Every structure is written in C-alpha cells, then in structure tokens.
Amino acid sequence: MRSGIDISLTEHLKKHFGFTSFKGNQEAIINNVLAGNDGFVLMPTGGGKSLCYQLPALIMEGTAIIISPLIALMKNQVDAMRSFSTDDMVAHFLNSSLSKAQITKVKEDVMDGRTKMLYVAPESLTKEENIQFLKQIKISFYAVDEAHCISEWGHDFRPEYRRIRPIINEIGSAPIIALTATATPKVQHDIQKNLNMLEATVFKSSFNRHNLYYEVRPKINATKEIIKYIKNNCGKSGIIYCLSRKKVEELAEILRVNGIKALAYHAGMDANTRADNQDKFLMEDCDVIVATIAFGMGIDKPDVRYVIHYDMPKSLEGYYQETGRAGRDGGEGNCIAFYSYKDIQKLEKFMQGKPVAEQEIGRHLLLETTAYAESALCRRRTLLHYFGEDYPDVNCETCDNCRFPKTQFEGQEYVEQVLDAILAVKEKFKSDHIANILAGNLDSAIKSYKHHKLEIFGTGSEKDNKFWNSVIRQALVAHFIQKDIENYGLLGLTPLGHEYLEHPHPITLYEDHHYADEEDEEGGMGGGKTSTVDTELFNILKDLRKKMSKQKSLPPFVIFQDPSLEDMSIQYPITMEELQNIVGVGAGKAQRYGKEFLELIKAYVEEKEIIRPQDMVVKSVVNKSGMKVYIIQAIDRKMSLDDICNAKNLSMGDLLNEIEAIVNSGTKLNLDYYIDEVLDEEHQDEVFDYFREEAESESIEEALKVLGDDEYSEEEIRLMRIKFISEMGN
C-alpha cells in the first residue's frame, strides 16, 4: 500500500510540475500533509519549500489557504502556479491590491471549487467579511509561509502574524504546515508555540549552502568597490541590500550613471513601480536590484550570482536569508558584506525610545551580527552554529576567513585591563571614554572627571584608542561586558565578565583596525600623494604643462595643479568625460586645456600597452553640489564672505577651501567686491604680479616668505591667489 502512495505521489509530481524526483525532505513533508498532520518545515532558501504545500494542495479535496506576508511574493507564486496549470483559476490571491470587482471574482472561483490555492495576507485574513467567506468553503489545510514573522526573535517580526492561530480556530480546524528558511532553535519553538503545534512533525534540512562564498569587507570606499565588483562580473544577476530607502535610491542612481543596469526596490515606492522593477529583474532587463529587505522573499530567480550587503543587517537570520537568494540553482553564489562598526552604532541608536523588551532583543541580535563580522572563525561554521547545526570541518575553504586567515594574538592581558577600567569608573562610562583612559588620552571629559588620576590611566598607552575600542567590542561579543542602550551606551560587566576577572584564562583576539576606519565615500581620491602614481607619465605631463604655460604666459599651476596631474597618472583619462572625473578638473578647465593632455595620455597608454584601471573611475551623482551652487550664487550677489560663513556654519578657512575647489576646477568667480574691502589697490597689484611673474608654485607659504608675513595674512594671499587663477586660468 505504501509503495502505491509513493508511486502516485511521484506521478503527481511529474504530471503537475514535470519533475521526476523529490529534493531532500519534500516527499516526507508532503506525505505528512496528505496524512492530515501538522508539520514544521525548516528548509534553507532554494530547498524547494513552496512545492511542499503546492503539490498536496493540487492533490487534496478543497482549497489550501496559504498565508503569506508580501503582495509581491503572492503575485509571483500565483503566476508560477498558473504557468504549471491549464486553468488560471487554480491559484488566486486575496489582498489589499485588488479592487472590489476582482475580490468578487476570486470568491466566485473559490466557491465553484476551481481554486486549489488561495494566498492571503495576514491582514486580509483578520477581516470579518473574509472570515465569514472562508467559513463557507472546504479548507484542505493551512500553510503559514515565512513563519519566522511570528517570532519577536525572528528577523522580520510582524505583529499580525501572532493573530493567525485565533483566526484559524474561528474559521475552522484543518492541518497546519508552517514553513521558514531561517529559524534559530528559540525562534522555532516560538513559532510552534504560537501556532499551537508543539506536537507537529518537524522537518529540518541542513542550513549549509555548499556553493555560497561568504566574505566581509571593511566599509572603505564601498560604492567604488561595488562598481568594481559588478564590472568584473558583467552580465551576471545580483542583489544589493541597503538598510535605508534613501541609500537604495542613491546607490541605484550611481550604478546607472556608471553604466550598470540597476533598479531600486523599497516599500516607499508605489506598487506598480515596485512590481515593474521586480519583473524587469526576473526577465533580465536589468542586472542589479538595489533594495531594502522588502525585496526577495520568495522571489524564485535561481541564477542570482551575488548578494552584496552595503549595510550589515540587523540580525544574522536576516543576513542568512538574504544571502540565501544567491546561487539557488546550485551554481556560483558570492555573498559580500561591507562592515563598519559605525553602522552597528547607528542601529543601536534607532532602538532608543522602543520598549525595553524590544531593545533587549534588538541588542542581542546586533551582537550576533557584530560577532559574525568581526570573528576570525570560519564564517560557515559561525552561521551553522547560530542555527543549531555543527559544521564538522575546521576549514570550509569558501569564506574569506578560511582563505585569508586574520592575524591573531593573545588577548588575556588586554581584556583584563578593559574590565578593570570599566569597574574603576563604576560602570558609568561609554567605550570611547574607557579606550581613552587606557590609551592615556587626556581629553576634556577625562580631566573633568579626574580620571587621569586613576591608577589604570595610561596603562595601555603603547596602543591607541582604536585598538582599545576593538578589544572592548570583542569583549562585548564574548559577553564579558554589556552596553546599556537606555543609558546612552554605558558599559558594565556581565556575570561572565566578573567570572573572567576572578579566573582569567588565555583568549584569542584578532587585529581588525581597518574596520574602524570607515572613510567618507564622497571624499574620492582626495588629491593626496599615492604610491600608485605612474611617475614616468607624471613627469611627461609636467613637461607638457610647462610647455603650455610658456605658450600661454601663465604659471604652470594655473593650467593644472600637481594633484590633478597625479590623478591623471593613476586614472589614464583618454576622453573629455573621463578627464572631468579627475581631481580639480571641471568642465571649463577640461575644455580649455585638456585636448593636448588627453592626446598625450592616449598615445602613452597605447605605446606601453597599459590596461587602464577604469574601475577606479567612479562617476558620482552630484549630491554635494548644493554647497557649491549656494556659494557661487552668493558671490554673484556680492554677499559678504563672513555672511556666507554664518549662513552655512563654516569657518573662513573652510569657505576658502570650497571657493578654491570651485575655481581650481575651472569656474570663474569675481571676488573683487570683497577683496577691495580687505586690501588696497597697491597691495592687490603686488600680490597679483608675484603670482604672474615670480611664483614657481601655488604655495601660500612661499608667497608669504617673499611678500612678508608681517604685511600680509594667509587669508589675504589666498584671496588674491583665487582672483589670479580665476582671471588668468579660467
């Protein structure tokens, strides 16, 4: 008898879906549903969860009610089911996106017995009219998809999921199958308890995705790194996750500007645009989706080749599920996350004001994420352990920690110092303050609290405060200390920390200093000196600049300053567009002086057969132009520079930096109205003539030395240099 069921089930599989065999636990799960039993299914993304309720729904009498959290997910699943069937009525969804006429049509098809699967949002399930409607039909079973949404300890908690069981009791009893791709043992118990199915048969597949490669990178020039990665993986499908809608929009735009077919997806967009962008991704009209976590639940695209986290997610469960969307076909799947502790601090701040219980849960989940990012252990082993599964191998060979082991060191002494320092200040100070005490940094806070008089002050002065902050973070991750978010992040010892001080033992720490150095994304190359400058090209460009300066009777620095030539010797620009991406080169300067430089660089590149680092040239969306536009308009209106400083909360030095950047990149500004107030005509002529006839460089120090620092201030010389470059060079 049993073999007959098995054969029948396989025949159903072939008939409805065209497959000849089941994956993993699918067959056992489906038989459990057909037998009328409750089931809890824990199966990683790509394991084939949907089939576990789709096939029994087609076989059994009545309609299966599938409770699902996202409208996009329902549409995707219904479309998929209709593609397998000759009857479009086989699957429907019931949610807020439907009109009254559409809802009536859905209910008619269900009542006629033509609909085998009805997808319902939990919010729709609780509406009285829907409860009364569902009471009238024969329900084969209930499937609660994305069941982790039930648990406050899950990564995507939805309060309305907590109401599912009482509603089911009201509509009418039938077997329940709860399915999720991610659940720690705690979340699993929470789900089963809430759905009143603690006796359910549990089907747990391994969480190990052998084909996925895990990597965490320091969040330094993340946008540039992402563009570089995508261009090296041209034509492959990828998802980039950001925590904020604003960052999603910004990053998608920057990718498009840099020639990448990318679209945005977040809950703040209108439903049509969201659905359209999702369809374009599925149909391969775009390569990359930049999204918040609203994207991807149940999206059945098997060939996503990379998942990038621009921001670390709030929990490891979220991270695991999002990375699980890569390589669902068993092929290549690269999971890259950009980590900065500043991002974790931002997430902690967002928790302030929430109920204490919620903060406790959030803090715990964040600690797990931090531990994963900063740990030197095998990432696969860390993830599997989090989900209650052991990974037998010491080295997985498919994560960055296993391929490139981090530098480790013995940390017992450092951890003891941190714990002693926290106790010495009565557990009433934050991590930066503790780090400064140990490093011996005498700042105003330490002076005011007289903490420089503590015995422990400066005992770790051979290390800087970044090092001590790193030790503090690792002690947090090890649960020796805890951070009181309610009280502005004050550090205190845990029972485990007190125990460690009483019975200290060797502990391995690792160097992670680069994670603390998150750079300003917008800073770009900054024009500073760099070892990657092609010195031969740099000298050739200087010769060309000198020749051109003689032809035009201008000092060389008026044409292009040294940082611009250095950047050209790194980027090798050969078009006007590329030249305008060079430090200190705007459209005007490029048009005026660029042609000969571009011709020279192009010939040099061809002669030397240089492969240009195009991936380093990241075009930026104008997002800092507001300040520049304001300054240009204010100067056009002859607004006092002091008033501009006050309006924009700038020092005069900062304002002059901004003005110099504007003028150096080729924009003409007339500051005569202001200069006339601070310098008489004779002094103006003297400085102007110096820059035109004597100056060998743009150096302010040299100018003050020649002209006399007792007669001129640095500010006056800078103003005259701006006037000179604007008039003579632009």
Task: Explain what you see.
With 730 residues, the protein is of the alpha/beta class. It has five domains: 2-204, Rossmann fold; 212-403, Rossmann fold; 412-506, Winged helix-like DNA-binding domain superfamily/Winged helix DNA-binding domain (Arc Repressor Mutant, subunit A); 524-616, DNA polymerase, domain 1 (Orthogonal Bundle); 625-729, ATP-dependent DNA helicase RecQ (Arc Repressor Mutant, subunit A). Mean pLDDT is 84; it is low at 1-6 and 516-531.
SS elements, strand count: 17
The CATH topology name of the largest domain reads Rossmann fold
| Number of helices in the DSSP assignment | 34
Q: Measure the end-to-end span.
A: 91 Å
Q: Give unreliable regions as ranges.
A: 1-6, 516-531
Task: Tell me the name of the CATH class of the largest domain.
Answer: Alpha Beta
Please tell me the overall pLDDT. Answer: 84
Question: Which percent bin holds the helix content?
Answer: 40-55%
Strand content: 5-15%
Strand arrangement, major sheet: 3-4-2-5-6-1-7
Radius of gyration: 32 Å
Q: Return the structural class.
A: alpha/beta
> How is the biggest beta sheet arranged?
7 strands, parallel
What shape does the CA trace take? globular
What is the number of domains?
A: 5
Under the CATH scheme, which architecture of the largest domain would be assigned? 3-Layer(aba) Sandwich
